[in-house]
Description:
This protein is an alpha/beta fold. The protein has one domain (5-256): Aldolase class I (TIM Barrel), CATH 3.20.20.70. The protein is built from eleven helices and eight strands. The protein has an eight-stranded parallel β-barrel with strand order 1-2-3-4-5-6-7-8, surrounded by seven helices. Helix 1 packs parallel to helix 2, helix 7 runs parallel beside helix 8 and helix 10 (222-229) runs parallel beside helix 11 (246-256). The longest helix has 19 residues, at 186-204. The chain binds phosphoenolpyruvate. Phosphoenolpyruvate binds at residues 9, 173, 178-179, 217-220, 238-242.
Amino acid sequence: MRRPIVGGNWKMHLTRIGAVRLAREVGEGLRAHDVDAARLDVGVFPPFVYLDSVGTTLSDDRSPLELGAQDLHPEPEGAFTGEVSAPMLLDVGARAVLVGHSERRHVIGEPESLIRRKTHAALAAGLRCVLCVGELLDERDAGTTNEVNERQLRSALEGAAVRDPDMLVIAYEPVWAIGTGRTATPQDAQQAHAHIRRVLADVLGTDAAARVRIQYGGSVKPANAKELFSQPDIDGGLIGGASLKAEDFVAICLAAVPR
Ligand code: PEP
C-alpha cells in the first residue's frame, strides 16, 4: 500500500555538466522502463550549487524525478553565512530535503537539537523531509541499534506537525554500512525498520505510521537491492555511491518497483 521511494544522494561529487548529464541519464533510464510516479517516487539530491541546473534539466524533459537538497538551515532567512533556507530550496525547484544524514551528524557534528529544528522547518515549508537515523558500529556491537534509532526519531519529531505522512520519509542508515561495502542483512534491516515503525506509531499514531515510507541506506547495489526492498517494512532506499552511475541507480530503482 506504500508507494516505494528511492533517493540518490550525490554528496559532494560531480561537476555542473556531470550532474546535469547524470540527471538526464537517470530520467531516460526510468522512462525506458516505463517507471512513472504512480509506481515509484525517485529523488536526486545534488549539491546545492547544482540544484538550479539539475532542476531545469528535469523540468525540460518532464522527468519523473523529484529534486532534493542535502541539507537546509532551520531559519527562513537571516545572517547565516554559507547557509541555505527552505524557501530558497523551494525557489530553485527542490521538493525534498535530507535531514540528519550521518555525515552531518558525525562528521560535521550536528547536534540532535539542530536536527529537530531542521525537521520542523522542512515539514513546515512543505518540503518532503527525509530524516536519516542510524547507529554507529560500537552502538550496534553494544546491542543498542533500536535504542539509538528510537532516540534520534523521538528527538527529531518532538513537537513536529506531520500533516501529510507522505511528506515524511525515514532513512534508516546504519553508519557502519555507509560507503563501506558492508550491508545490513535484509533480516537485520527489517527488524530495525519494524522497530522504527513501532516508534512512529507511538509518536504519530498507527494510521500515519503505516503510511510513512522507511528507506534503507548503506551500500545498496543492484545486486542486493531486490532482497532488501522485498522486506515488508523496507519501502525503498537512500543510495550514495551507486547513485552516481545512472545504470546502477536505475537498476536499483527497478528493484523497488512493485511487481
Ligand atoms: C548514503 O550516504 O546515504 C549512503 C547510503 O551511501 P552508500 O550507498 O554509498 O553507502
